[in-house]
Each structure stands twice: as C-alpha cells, then as structure tokens.
Amino acid sequence: MTEAEELELARQDHRHFGVVYERYFEQIYRFIFKRLGGDEAVAGDLVQQTFMKAMANLSKYEDRGLPFSAWLYRIAQNEVNMFFRAQKKHYFVEINDRQLTGLLEETAGSHTFSQEDLEQLVAIINNLEEPQSDLIELRFFQEMSFRDIAEIYNISEANAKMRLYRLLEKIKHQWKPAL
Amino acid sequence: METSIMRKFKVNTAAKPKEPTKEQMVRYKDFATISHQYQRLTKRPKKPLYKDPKLFLLLLVIGIVILLICLEA
User: Fold this and answer.
1) Residues linked to residue A94 through DSSP beta bridges, in sequence order
2) Is B47 on the interface with A (CB under 8 A)?
C-alpha cells in the first residue's frame, strides 16, 4: 500500500493514522528534542500535539509532490515556536563549539576561534528575528540539507540557499573580528 | 503585535550535541492515547440531549411550569 493510500484510509478512519505515526514518530521526536536542547518530557508533549494536529487537519493536507514528513516537520516547527513564545522567561538551548564551527567558518572566514568569537556569534543569532534564527538552527545546529529545509518551508532549494546566503551576509555585516 | 521568541542559545563548550535515546523515544511513543483523545474531541455524543430521559423530564417540567404561568396570567 502506498503512503497516499494509507493517508486516504486515515482520512476516513483516524485509527489508520497509526501506521503513519509509527513511521514518523522517531524522526519528529528527534527533531523536537534537539530544538528544545534535550528536554525529553516537553518533547514528548509536543510530539503528541504535533501528531494530534496532523490527524485533525489531515483533510487539509494536499499531496503536492513533497514528502508527507515535510508537512509534519512544519507542524512540529510551529508547535515548538508556540512553546517558546509561551515561555515567561528566556528558554536557553545549549550549543557547543562544534555546532558553531560551520557557521563561524562561513561568517568569520577563519578556522580558529576564541571563546569571545563564539559568544559574539551567539549574541548575533539571539538578536535575529524568529524565522532567521530558525533557519540558522535548521541548517547549522540540526544539520539539515537545503532540500529538507526547502521542503519544510515549501520553497525551492535555490530559494532556501538564497535566504541563507542573505542571512549569512547580514551576520557577516554585524561581525566584529576580535582584536 | 509580534510576539518575541523566548528561545535563546547559550554556548557551552562542554555540552555534547543532544540526541534522544531509543528508550526515551519508546517512553513517549503512544498512539493509543492520542487516538483516544482525538476520538473524544471529535466524536458527537451518541444520544442527542433531548433523548436523554432525565433531560427530557426536566424540559417537560419547565414547559409545564411556563404553560401554567401563562394560563394563570
């Protein structure tokens, strides 16, 4: 049975959605878990909400040639952002120097970095608007391909590359080399 | 008004990239619960309210009281 057929069955009876849930649970959980910086309980709640929303809105889903997982990632992305927005205090997500390396090479153009460089870069990212910091996160911290990012945002791969290129230019502009 | 995001990144050079374990994922994988919640949210009550004997009786009593009041007036 194809996935399109499975989804059609799930539209008629939600219990058939279990097959789709089984298939995508782990990758969606992993995505949310990493976005939250490792909070397993909150990730557990958000992954359930993600699938609940997917099930409730399955009739609105249209197969436009993109994988079904892209639609699920989009819902998960929104769920996590809603969670962040609902926080009364800042919610800190820890990242290490290895995760920042690629981004530092792109922006500072060097392979050696000081602690100040890392702090400066994180400060710049923290001041970006939500869609921009999300894009940085997907590409450099979640290490997603341009193809996957394009599918989540429902844009072309070239457009995803262009958005990131402009964003890196913006970061470069704000970057002040350590003396 | 745009709501600002409360997520902030923090550098911790000692932190390892976070990956969930198989056990963690198994702990939260539960289709039965969301299926049950979904069913509760979307399913209409089996019996229409007016077919509920207690509610029917209550409506009947209210109707009679209103009728009596009207007749009295």
Assistant:
1) B10
2) no
How far apart are the C-alpha atoms of A32 and A29, rounded to whole Å?
5
How many angstroms separate the Cα of A125 from the Cα of each of A18, A118, A129, A174, B25? 38, 11, 9, 10, 30
Q: How far apart are CA A85 and CA B7, in angstroms?
A: 8
* Inter-residue contact A142 to A93 (CB < 8 Å): no
| Chain B residues close to A33, C-beta within 8 Å | 18-20, 24
SS (H, E, C) B29-72: CCHHHHHHHHHHHHCCCCCCHHHCHHHHHHHHHHHHHHHHHHHH
Beta carbons within 10 angstroms of residue A33's beta carbon: 23
Give pLDDT tens digits for A120-159: 999 999 999 999 999 999 999 888 999 999 999 989 999 9
| Section B48-54 average pLDDT | 75
* CA-based R_g, chain B, Å: 28
Interface check for A132 against chain B (CB to CB < 8 A): the answer is no
Residues forming a β-bridge with B9: A93
pTM value?
0.81
Under 8 Å CB pairs connecting chains A and B tally to: 120
